[in-house]
Design goal:
The chain is mostly helical. It has 14 helices and no strands.
């Protein structure tokens, strides 16, 4: 049975990776100028004419790769939070982590005139600060999932109030630009946002996967995990820290792209029932979601480019409503 499960996990991961690569190629082919796949592959491997090379490498590739990395980071972060806290609502964009990043970034942009990497750094700092505040407020000799989620929602609501105040007191043009960033957008993103996120993920993903070795024991409950020899508090803190930095790094690169962290991990677990957190599959699912959403945002209506966060919200909001309705039925014994 275990061997069959591993084989299914490998096949599922392979299919997801192929779909991600296919959607990446489609994103590079389609645009104002439609390029044949041969020209795209030629440009990627150093061949092709100068025009195709410029369109693919300088214009489309950084945005597509950034969508891939942002989706992977959000997907893995959502899988970590939901598994550690054993609550499907425990997603960074629901419990205030993304709100912390947004508040810090908007504060840096409107008050301190930050831009570029300084703005991204402010967003990452905001995510860490929000995560630290939520963890501290929810600590009662340990952290319980439901209490962490409720306090996170409260902290997120408070931070949204701060954001509203900053936007209503700002110059109209600056407020409009900040609001666009808060929607979550890949429009105009370039290699400047890609490389810092890549180097962060090169460090964060191995650390998260190493910390995730404790997840099977933690998913059994604190007492059982402690009985099995796990250092519950320390391992949970390490995992939550990794999830917070993953979500903060993705938000710093593209803004708080809504619902990707919330949806990716449940979809991955649906593909592999009974396999636990399946963090690599959650990352691939997140990458697939953001690539697909960004493609739709660019090409669904000719001549108009939506922020990618608008499209992901259209997918995630119904899922949240379904989850709440289902929880209500279960609570009534239905």
């Amino acid at each position: 049975m275990r061997r069959r499960g591993r084989v299914r996990a490998l096949w599922t991961g392979g299919v997801l990776a192929v779909l991600v690569f296919a959607l990446l190629c489609l994103s590079l082919c389609v645009g104002d100028y439609v390029l044949p796949l041969d020209d795209v592959l030629g440009a990627l491997f150093g061949g092709g004419d100068a025009g195709a090379h410029f369109v693919v490498i300088e214009l489309r590739l950084p945005r597509a790769l950034l969508a891939l990395l942002v989706g992977a980071a959000f997907g893995m972060a959502g899988g970590v939070f939901q598994t550690v806290l054993r609550n499907p609502l425990a997603s960074p964009d629901v419990i205030g982590i993304s709100s912390g990043a947004s508040a810090a970034a908007v504060l840096g942009s409107l008050v301190l005139s930050f831009s570029g990497l300084a703005l991204s750094g402010a967003a990452l700092f905001g995510a860490l600060a929000a995560g630290t505040l939520i963890y501290t407020l929810s600590w009662r000799g340990g952290v319980v999932g439901a209490r962490f989620v409720l306090i996170g929602i409260g902290v997120g609501t408070g931070l949204l109030s701060v954001l509203s105040y900053l936007l209503t007191t700002a110059d109209v043009d600056e407020a409009q630009e900040a609001f666009l960033w808060m929607t979550g957008s890949l429009n105009g993103r370039s290699w400047t946002q890609f490389w810092p996120l890549l180097w962060l993920l090169v460090v964060l993903v191995p650390l998260t996967l190493a910390a995730a070795r404790a997840l099977p024991a933690l998913s059994l409950g604190d007492d059982t995990a402690a009985g099995l020899g796990s250092r519950v508090g320390r391992q949970r803190l390490a995992l939550l820290a990794c999830g917070t930095v993953l979500a903060g790094a993705a938000t710093a690169a593209a803004g708080p792209v809504a619902f990707v962290a919330f949806v990716a991990a449940p979809v991955a677990r649906m593909l592999l029932p009974g396999r636990g957190a399946v963090l690599p599959h959650a990352a691939l699912t997140g990458a697939l979601l953001v690539l697909l959403a960004d493609f739709a945002a660019q090409h669904a209506i000719p001549g108009i480019q939506f922020p990618v966060g608008v499209v992901t919200s259209l997918v995630g909001a119904p899922y949240l409503l379904w989850l709440l309705a289902r929880a209500n039925r279960v609570g009534r014994g239905g």
